[in-house]
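User: Sequence recovery, please. Input:
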């Protein structure tokens, strides 16, 4: 499909282990898009956060918020179509509230974070298409174990379950633009070419409907 200059930003949302990075890479390869990955490998707080969530939650969330805001500024200034691994909304609507309600972020830090997000969000536009990877907790755990990141071994099941509930609530109310939901439990785009083809066809249909 030829690149449409009016479509600049496709974003993939989903819980930890849902397959966002893999799908971003595969779609970028097929459509010729540029990828903006989530800053995991060079994130200076992530490993510390998984060791002590309460101590590092605010630092981690501010780092991710800044990183994704910079990505969005770059996307809107650029001329290429970009697919983004996770959105800025997930930080504020899912991860920060979850940490706060698990008493892993103080009221003061949570209020500070929300005020910062509200300020930054006035300067960004929502994606032209949001792809949500829906997955059950057992599927997430299986995929997290497959990729074998050492710092993720300490992830608590209740943490993943709570995140999933926040995701379902957020997606259920998402009205910022076109939304495509992919059930990861029933489709294996990473290993099955036919499943990947189905996802590509669904993405193409959504994008063709935008112009």
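Assistant: Recovered sequence (211 residues):
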């Amino acid at each position: 499909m030829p690149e449409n200059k009016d479509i600049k930003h496709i974003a993939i949302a989903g819980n930890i282990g849902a397959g966002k990075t893999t799908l971003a890479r595969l779609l970028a390869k097929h459509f010729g898009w540029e990828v903006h990955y989530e800053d995991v490998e060079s994130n200076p707080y992530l490993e510390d956060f998984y060791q002590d969530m309460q101590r590092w939650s605010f630092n981690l969330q501010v780092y991710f918020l800044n990183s994704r805001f910079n990505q969005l500024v770059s996307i809107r200034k650029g001329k290429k179509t970009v697919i983004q691994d996770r959105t800025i909304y997930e930080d504020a609507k899912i991860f920060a509230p979850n940490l706060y309600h698990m008493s892993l972020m103080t009221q003061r830090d949570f209020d500070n974070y929300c005020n910062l997000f509200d300020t930054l969000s006035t300067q960004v536009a929502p994606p032209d298409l949001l792809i949500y990877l829906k997955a059950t907790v057992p599927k997430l755990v299986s995929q997290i174990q497959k990729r074998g990141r050492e710092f993720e071994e300490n992830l608590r099941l209740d943490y993943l379950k709570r995140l999933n509930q926040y995701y379902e609530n957020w997606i259920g109310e998402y009205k910022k633009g076109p939304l495509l939901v992919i059930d990861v439990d029933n489709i294996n785009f990473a290993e099955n070419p036919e499943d990947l083809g189905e996802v590509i066809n669904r993405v193409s249909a959504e994008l063709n409907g935008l112009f």
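The CA atoms of residues 58 and 109 lie 6 Å apart.
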